[in-house]
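Rotation project, supervised by the postdoc (A.L.). Task for the rotation student: set up a whole-complex structure prediction and record inputs and outputs verbatim in this book. Inputs entered:
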Amino acid sequence: MRHVLTLFDLTSAEIEEISEITEDLKTKLAQGVREPLFPGRVLALLFEKQSLRTRVSFETAMAHLGGNSLFLGKDVGWGERESAADFGQVLGEYVDAVVCRANSHAKVEALAEHCNRPVINGLTDTSHPCQALADLYTLRELHGSLTGLRLAYVGDANNVARSLAIACGKLGVEFAVAAPDGYQFDTEFLTELEKKLPTMSLVQTTDPHEAVAGAVAVYTDVWASMGQEGEREERARALAGYQVNSGLMKQAASEACFLHCLPARRGEEVTAEVIDGPRSAIVQEAGNRLHAQKGLLAWLLRSTG
Ligand code: CP
Ligand code: NVA
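Outputs recorded:
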């Protein structure tokens, strides 16, 4: 029984295996085949933040696999009505796996500690592993192979950026992040990357032009994540020089695509010209959340009874 709280929880070979299952299931779906591999299995979606992509793609994935899902919002009182231990143990008695989206990563860790079913992180303040799995799958679709490619992330070095960094490190993709001081990866995360992925190629800079040079994908995310709405103006000022616009895209490789986890704020972290332009792969990327999550579910559920 495995939890996926960050991509450090998966080996490179396991990520490759999930990617192969994803590819197989995506190909079959395109042929109209929805194999009910897990009839009667139930996935709980325990969310304390809004979601379109993560929620709908997991629910749809589970339906395609022949199972069911339960959306659990505030009404179940996670963290409010009973102890983390009681909550996690009892939930594990009912369902086959749990996807959760929480304000704090520690809350998801506490759930996983007590739940005897796989817990999948559907986004926390520090991590968004399912997003990065889909993104690297998309990059491979676009470029054929991943080894030696460079992905540039420009903007706030947030939860999405962290998961992308780990995914890139695991799959041999060079990761370059450009963010202003105060919005970069902290020393603790950099030390963890260095320790767990010693051969990874990582560049952290304050210069967006340096980060995108030679990159085949330019990625950004909102400057104020969910829960940071009160800092929106301050963040917009600090990150103003980190907008992905056509001038910056010109500095990347000629074949570079634009990626964004969505939702996006046009005119802030990215211009409409770029996100709605010919190099943008955002719809393919968001669509791949369904396939990648189906791949992850199939990989996790096949080893549980
Ligand atoms: N990218 C992403 O996770 O989107 P949602 O917040 O809509 O799930
Ligand atoms: N960084 C964003 C990602 C949303 C998918 C957030 O946490 O709100």
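Student's summary: The chain has two domains: 7-128+288-304, 129-285.
Supervisor addendum: The CA atoms of residues 3 and 118 lie 5 Å apart.
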